[in-house]
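Hi team,

Filling in the usual template for the complex we talked about on Friday. All components are listed, including any nucleic acid strands or ligand strings, so the model treats them as one assembly.

SUBMITTER: L.P.
PURPOSE: interface mapping
COMPONENTS: two
RESIDUES: 518
SEQUENCES:
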Amino acid sequence: MSAGRVSRWWHIFAPLAVGTAFLVLWEIVVRINGIPPYILPGPSAIAESLWTDGPSLFGSLLVTLRVTLAALAAAAILGGMIAVLFSLSRILELSLFPYAVILQVTPIVAIAPLIIIWVREPFLALLVCAWIVAFFPIVANTTVGLNSADRNLLALFRLYDASPVQVLRYLKLPTALPFFLTGLRISGGLALIGAVVAEFVAGTGGAETGLAFRILEAGYRLAIPRLFAALFLLSLTGIVIYLVLDGLSRVLLRPWHESALEEEEE
Amino acid sequence: MHGIGKRFRSGLTALEAIDLDIGKGEFLSLIGPSGCGKTTLLRIIAGLAEPSQGERRLLMAADTGGHISSGRVGFVFQDPTLMPWSTVIDNVLLPFRLAGRVGSAERERVRSEIRAVGLAGFERAYPRELSGGMRMRVSIARALVTDPDLLLLDEPFAALDEITRMALNDDLLRLWESRRTTVVFVTHSVFESVYLSTRIAIMATRPGRIAADLPIELPQPRERAQRTSPAYATICATVSEELARAMAERSN
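RESULT (copied from the run log):
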């Protein structure tokens, strides 16, 4: 397909061109109107701040990243396990799923202060906040996946006297894998948001300072270029997390799933 | 099978008083209009559905107390029903894996079955890399790999194009001729059923029942040339007539 061949190049070029144009326009607007940097710094001022504050911001980034990744891992493991339990027992699913939904729809900003009071250890408190936001997409997606096994394949497994464990291992888990990975990709971004929100609420609390707190702090001190630099790092982290999870998904599904098809196939 | 009946919870009577004796080594086709319960009947024979009344008895299973031990029945669905995440070899190996027997003997058996359906060289391919006809061959190999006493096929070739369908008809015939597995074949196609079967049961609808039971006396082994022979045409005409009569009964 010729459209596919054109698009591969455009995939990189088009967003890059838009981004560059936007930055140039931003710089021009800031310079022409003489907007002071404490209201809106130009991209060059932000880049400068990124250069000078980079090392210390990067240290904060690692703090936030640690919370995010730990929460994501906990969400993947516990979310996957809860989904498997749900698939094994319909009663369990019916009785617990509504509470998972409640946990999901209650804004994390509202419960974060409580969690920070209850959980004394700061790292753990942040972890719990990020986990609450991240685990639901994994549970919900994996549960759907486990329940979408092909009906004829289920009949075939029955014909060959498969045990429930065999049905789970050879049929339901492979069927659920793409769903689980979709959940994981959504949760990757959410875990980062959860960690940032929790840091906003928690402040430093005597612990190491994460990137979110650096944003707050920069805001108070009107160090707006540094605020933007921290924001930039945060977005970049979110993008990297997404790309890594997307790559993981492709590697795992490459041999068989439609979503991982290479373009030259058509 | 005697007096098999099936009533769905909706109150719909899908099958009524079906008597059907299937002889060992027979190639029996079930043919009838949509909704006559062919598939339901086939699932009852497989033990995938329970009849609401009547009994299903398989003589070959008599010694195991009526329970059909796994691997004695092979089933081919309308779709190939393969596991997309597994290679051809792993798909065909599935019955052994579920029985907890995956040794070198079983692997060799799987390989020879894949060769028997004409897919040598595609052992490591994934289902999405295969054509519709090839996927159906994998499905047939999987059904035959345990050397079942009874092979059940539910409109397996309905979704395939005419050329692929003819080729698979011939291959299925060769496989049957060399093993004499008892086959029950559900189809919509009169021509296909006459070409393949030793016997055709014509089903009528509402409630589903067997309207006619015809032995097909065409010389064995069947050759493609017979598809144009006058004898073949006559039998096709007879079956079509019976089918038309079975369908007309419904409207009365």
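MY TAKE: Residues 43-88 of chain A form the longest helix (46 residues). Chain A touches chain B at residues 150, 152-153, 155-162, 166, 170-171, 174, 177, 255-258 (CB under 8 Å).

Thanks, L.
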